[in-house]
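For practice. Any example?
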Amino acid sequence: MFKVVLMLLVISVFYILQLGNVITYDESYTYFTYAHNPLVALIHYTRPNNHQFHSLLVWFSTTFIGDSTVAIRIPVYLSAMLTLSYVYQLGKRFYNAQVAWVAVIILASQPLLVQYATEARGYMVSMLRT
């Protein structure tokens, strides 16, 4: 358990450095259009790329933390950390700890996953649910 937590902390450092990057159009559109109200986040579905649960999580984080770029991105960052821990658990359950480590390292180092884990667009939340 300690090794898993340590691994996630190391990965977190890399991802946290990316959380302060300039906000993209999709992220700001989600924040200003959907995540300003919890009912709007859940009910207002005008675009196919609007992830409603993600919008609700963005509303939650910005309500309690503030309207910073990092607060907008916290739900996807936490989803990424949970996804990596689930991948480890699945790898360990079906194979062994070594395979689980390799799976997490390969997944965590993929550029697309790094992008999904640090941009508030909802894809990481969908990956976690999958």
User: Anything to note?
Assistant: The chain has a mean pLDDT of 86.
